[in-house]
Amino acid sequence: MLKSSRRRLITEPAALLEQLEARALLASDPLPSIADLTNPNNTVVRLETNFGDIDLEMFDQAAPGTVANFLKYVRDGDFDKTFFHRFSQNFVLQGGLARLKSPTTTGQFNGSGAANQSWESVPTDAPITNEFNQSNLRWTVAMARLGGQANSATSQFFINLNDNTNLNTVDGGFTVFARVANTRSQQVITSIVAGVTINISNGSPFNGTGQGTTTDGLPVRSGFTGTNVTEDQLVTIVDAEIIKPQGVAAFYTYKVVYPEGFAGSTINEFLPLGNPGSTTLRYQVIVRSEVRETRPTGNVDFWYRDKVVNTGTIAPNRRAGVTLSTFSTPANNLVPRQGTPYSIEVWATGPIAATISHYDFGSSTIEAFTRESSTTWFLPDIRKGTGINDFVVWSNSQDVPANLTLTFFQESGSTIEVTRSTEAFRRGGLAISALTELVDGEYSLRITSNVAIVAASTGYKTTGNDRGGATQLGLTGNGASRGVLPIANSGAAASPVRDTVSIVNPNTAAAFVTLIARFEDATPDFTITPSALLIQPGTRSSFTLPDVSALQGKRYTVLYSAGAQRVYVSTRHIENNDIATNPFSYTAATRHDFAEGFMNAQRAGVDLFEQIAIYNPGQFFGITDTAATDVTVRFLFTDGFVVSLTRSIARDRTLFIDLANPADEFSIALRAQNANNRFFFSVEVVSTDPVVAQFRHYDLTLGNLQPSGGDSTIGTQRGTVTVL
After folding, report:
1. Would the pLDDT of 115 be above 50?
2. What pLDDT band is residue 200 in, cutting at 50, 70 and 90?
3. Is residue 445 part of a domain?
4. Which of 155, 309, 326, 378 has the fewest CB atoms within 10 Å around its CB?
5. What's the count of helices (H) and strands (E) in the chain, helices before strands?
6. Distance between CA atoms of 577 and 615, rounded to whole angstroms?
7. Distance separating alpha carbons of residues 453 and 483, to the nearest angstrom
8. Closest C-alpha to 233, from 195, 189, 200
9. Are residues 198 and 59 part of one domain?
C-alpha cells in the first residue's frame, strides 16, 4: 500500500567572435524534444537531482486538479532540496516529503524527538480530490496518499518503476498525473536505482514496514555506512522548475537574470517587460532568496529558496510589466517577504526584454537583465564613505555552491581580499559599508568564482551634488584593450553635470589609457593624452572628464584604448542631482533590448528626460568596412502599437536620440502617441551590423513618497554579438 503517513511514506545563440569566458546562464541537461511529449501543449517540469535531470510531462487535461496541485508546490519551491525518502525495488521511487534543515548538518534520523531531527517536512496545502484516470504503468508518476483515504494526497508523489497495475483498484485507484518525459530522464532514474541501497542502520522513520530489510526504505548512495546522511548521499532534488508552460509547443529557452532585488517599507520595485518578437511569449518570474527562512510551525507557506512569483503572456510587439513590491500596499506584493534580498530570473519562450526598476534611498535605479554568466567579474567603481551605501550582489544559478574571492584594488597598488560562499540557486551579496577591512575611499573590485555567476553593484549617495542611486552589471572575462560608452556629456564649468571614468588594471604591466571624446557635431575628436592616465599594474584610477574645458557643454561618445593591456572601465554620470552608471562596452550586437521607457509630452524636457545613443564601430576597433549601418529603433507600446524609425549611421559615428527634445524626430513620433493614451513603451534596436546602444532615463517628479531620479543601461544584447 502507498501511504503518505510519516511511518509508511509513499538561445537564440549569440555569435561570439571571441571567447568571453562567459557561459550559458543556466547550464543543465538538454531540454526534451516536443516530439518526446504525448501532447505538445502539456506542461513539463524538471527535477534537477544529484544524479541528473528528470523531466516530467504533466497530464494537464487528464488530471487537471492534481496537476495544478503539483505545479503549485513546484512554483512555491517546496520540492527544492527535498530528498526521495522511499525506494522500493521494482516498485516505486517516492519523494515530496522532507528536506534536511541545513546543508551543513547531516540526516540524523534516529534522534529522539522532533527537536533533535535534522530533517523537516515541507508545508502542505489542503488535500485534493482523487482523479484516477489511467493505469500506473512503468515511468508514470502518481500521487501518494493516506491509506484508505482516496482524497488525501498533498505533496508526495511517486515514480512507478514497474507496471504497478494493482494500484489501479486500491481505494479508487492512485491518480497518475504525469510521465517521465524522455529516454534520458528514464536513464537517470535507472542510474538512481542502480546506485542506491536501503540503509537500515540509521533508524530512518521512512523505512516503515520495510525496516529491517534492504528492499524498501530510505535510499542512500551505494557504499554509504553509518547513521548520518548528507544531501549528496541522499537522492536529492536540487531544484524543481517548470521548463515548459501549458498550452504552447515551446519551452522556456530564453533566460535572463539580474542579481539585485529587495522589498522593504520604503521601496517600490517594478519589472518592465517587452516582447519584441512576432509571436506571443509565455514567461515566468523566479525570485531566489539570499537567506534560508526558518520553517514556521504547521502547514504555513514559507520562502525556502525559490518562488515563481508571476507567470503570464505578452502579445507580439508589446510592452508589459510586473509590480514586484510597493511599500504603500505590501499585502499585494508578489515578493513573499520584505527584508529578504533576492535575485530575479525571467524565463520566456522567446527573446524578452527585462529591466529592473528600483526605488529606494530617495532615488531610482534601472538596469537591463543579462543573458551571460561568468567566473570572473569586475566592478571598476566601488565607494565607501559618509553618506555612501554601496552594495555588491551576485546570483548563483548553478547547482553547486559558489565560492567567491573578492579582491579590492586601490590607487596605491594595495589589494584587499575577502571571501564568501553562496549556496546553489541563491543570491549573495555584501554591504560595502559593513566591510571593516576597507577604509573610506574609492575601489575597483574583481570577483572570481569556482562556478559561473552574475554580478552587479548598486550605489546610493545621500549627500552632495552627486547624491542619488545607480546600479550596473559588472564586466566579464579578461577585459578589453578598447571599449566604448555611446553617450556622455558635461555641463558648463559650474554645472554639476559630469562624467567620472574609473579604470582598473589587474595586469602585471602598466596600461597607458587614452580617452577619446567623439562629438555629435562637426567638432574634431578630443584626445586625453596617455600621460594623464598611466595605470600602474594592479591599481585603479579615475578621471573626471569635465575637468577638460573642451568638453564643457558638449554631448559625445567616449572611446578608450589601453594599447596591449586589457583593462576594465566604467563611468559615473552626474546629472539632475542624480547618478547614472555604466560599464564601457566591448561587445556590439545586432539587437539591443530595453524594457523601460516612458514619455509624456507635457513633462518632457522639464522633469522627464530620456536619451538613446547608438554607436557604429569602425576603424577605431579595427573594422575597415566603411559602409554605413542601417539601424531601426522600434518603440513597442502596451497596446501593441509600434513606432518604428530607420536611420543610417556612418562608421565611427553615433546617432544621438533625445526623446525629451521637441525638435527630435523620434521625440515627435512618440509625443504624438500621447493623444492615444500611449506613454509606456519598451525599445528594440535592430541593426544590419553590430552596434552599441545605450539608454538613459531620468524622471524627477514621481510624486508623494515615491523617490525620483534615473539611471543608464547598455541593454540586453542579442542577435549577432561581436567582441570589439
Report:
1. no
2. low
3. yes
4. 326
5. 3, 51
6. 27
7. 23
8. 195
9. yes
How confident is the prediction for the chain on average, in pLDDT?
A: 89
**Mean pLDDT over residues 592-607, rounded?**
92
Count of structural domains within the chain? 2
Element at 575 (helix H, strand E): strand 568-575
Q: Is 200 helix (H, G, I), strand (E, B) or coil?
A: coil
434 contact partners, CB below 8 Å, separation of at least 6:
none
Q: What is the mean pLDDT of residues 232-241?
A: 94
- pLDDT surpasses 50 at 112: no
Backbone angles phi, psi at 709, to 5 degrees: 140, -155
What backbone torsions phi and psi does residue 560 show, to the nearest 5 degrees?
-130, 150
CA distance 356 to 272: 7
Q: Are 247 and 41 in contact (CB under 8 A)?
A: yes
Q: What is the 3-state secondary structure (H, E, C) of 216-259?
A: EECEEECCCCCCEECCCCECEEEEEEEEECCCCCCCCCEEEEEE
**Three state DSSP letters for 11-56:** CCCCCCCCCCCEEECCCCCCCCCHHHCCCCCCCEEEEEEECEEEEE
Lowest mean pLDDT among 167-181, 244-258, 576-590: 576-590
- Of 242, 275, 299, the residue that ends a domain is 242
Spatial separation of the C-alpha atoms in residues 593 and 669, rounded to whole Å? 19
Residue 208 predicted with pLDDT over 60: no
Which of 362, 468, 304, 389 is closest to 705 using CA atoms? 362
Query: pTM for the full model?
Result: 0.93
pLDDT for 493: 62
Is residue 354 helix, strand or coil?
strand
Q: Which three cell numbers stand for residue 331?
A: 499585502
Distance CA 474, CA 446 (A): 9
C-alpha cell at 387: 553618506
Where b means 16+ CB within 10 Å and e means fewer, 46-78 reads: bbbbbbbbbbbbbbbebbeebbebbbebbbbbb
Residue 95 or residue 491, greater confidence: 95
The pLDDT value given to residue 107: 52
Residue pair 571/665 in contact (Cβ under 8 Å)? The answer is no
Domain for residue 605, yes or no?
yes
DSSP annotation string for 482-546: EEEEEEEE---TT-S-EEEEEEEE-SSS-EE-EEEEEESSSPPPEEE-GGGGEE-TTEEEEEEGG
Q: How far apart are CA 235 and CA 229, in angstroms?
A: 11
Q: Return the closest-CA partner of residue 694 out of 614, 629, 631.
A: 614
pLDDT surpassing 60 at residue 116: no
Who wins on pLDDT, 390 or 229? 390
Distance CA 68, CA 326 (A): 28
Q: Which residue has the cell 509630452?
A: 601
Domain boundary among 178, 207, 242: 242
458 pLDDT more than 70: yes
> In DSSP terms, which residues pair with 56 in a beta bridge?
45, 180
Using the 8-state DSSP alphabet, how is residue 293 labeled?
P
> pLDDT-based confidence at 512, cuts 50/70/90?
very high
Three-state helix/strand/coil letters over 139-193: CEEEECCCCCCCCCCCCCEEEECCCCHHHHCHHHCCCEEEEECCHHHHHHHHHHH
Which structural domain range is residue 413 located in?
364-723
Asked if residue 252 is part of any domain, the answer here is: no
Residue 492 pLDDT grade (very low, low, confident, very high; cuts 50, 70, 90):
low
Residue 16 clears pLDDT 60, i.e. is over it: no
Answer yes or no: do 236 and 375 share one domain: no
Cell numbers describing residue 533: 592616465
pLDDT for 111 equals 44
Strands 140-143 and 119-121: unpaired
In a domain, 430, yes or no: yes
CATH of the domain at 44: 2.40.100.10
